[in-house]
Amino acid sequence: MDEGYWQERASEINLYKSSDSSGKLNVEKIHTGVPDAKSLDTNDAFILDAGVGGIYVWIGKGCNPSERAKAMDWARQFLEKQMRPKWTQVVRVLEGAEPEAFTQWFGNWNEAKKPVQHQPKLFQVSNESGKLHVEEIADFYQEDLDGDDVMILDLFNTIYVWVGAGANKEEKEAAEATAKVCLKT
Q1: What is the pLDDT of residues 24-80, one digit of tens each?
Q2: From 130's CA, which of 58, 64, 83, 182 has a CA 20 to 30 Å away?
Q3: Judgement on whether residues 96 and 43 belong to the same structural domain of the protein
Q4: β-pairing, 121-126 with 133-137?
Q5: Do 103 and 53 meet the contact criterion of CB atoms below 8 Å apart?
Q6: Where is the Gelsolin-like domain (predicted)?
Q7: Same domain, 150 and 172
Q8: CB of 169 within 8 A of CB of 129?
Q9: CATH of the domain at 135
Q10: Shared domain check, 9 and 71
Q11: CA distance 185 to 183
């Protein structure tokens, strides 16, 4: 699509803050046009009305349980109040797991909400050479799992230890110790 299309669509975009902190539902328009990603507050829920692009309900990590539970109901009420067709797409979006279909509506998403990237790491624990080695495997694939060794997959918040059928006792013990070191660091 060309630049003119997006400029025309920008005037249709509205961002609303949704809250029940006062004891009753309050939906307040906070922005018209291409919204600023910094407007999204982790303690609240927001409705992004992207016109023909649909409705998105963004739920911050710090929302209270009531706001989390009611967010989609608020979106349905919002559709009725705005007299939008019942078939209008409503997408629930969780903070930290925003799809591109949502982030495309924000002019500064990448600058404002860039997550810290943690690339998975794969380590091979082997004593094939006679000396125990723990070696990182770069640019790995499932085929890199060696049936004669122990492999450690570090996903930052989760660590998996894969024990090959041909792994020996020393490799298994070293893998456990290495996995514990990964957890600590």
Answers
A1: 777 889 999 889 999 999 989 999 998 888 899 999 998 888 888 888 888 888 889
A2: 182
A3: yes
A4: antiparallel
A5: no
A6: 36-102, 136-180
A7: yes
A8: no
A9: 3.40.20.10
A10: yes
A11: 6
- The answer on 62 and 12 residing in a single domain is yes
Q: Which long-range contacts (CB under 8 A, 24 or more apart) does 9-15 make?
A: 9/50, 9/51, 9/52, 9/53, 10/34, 12/49, 12/50, 12/51, 12/52, 13/48, 13/49, 13/50, 13/51, 13/53, 13/105, 14/48, 14/49, 15/39, 15/46, 15/47, 15/48, 15/49
Residues 108, 137 share a domain: no
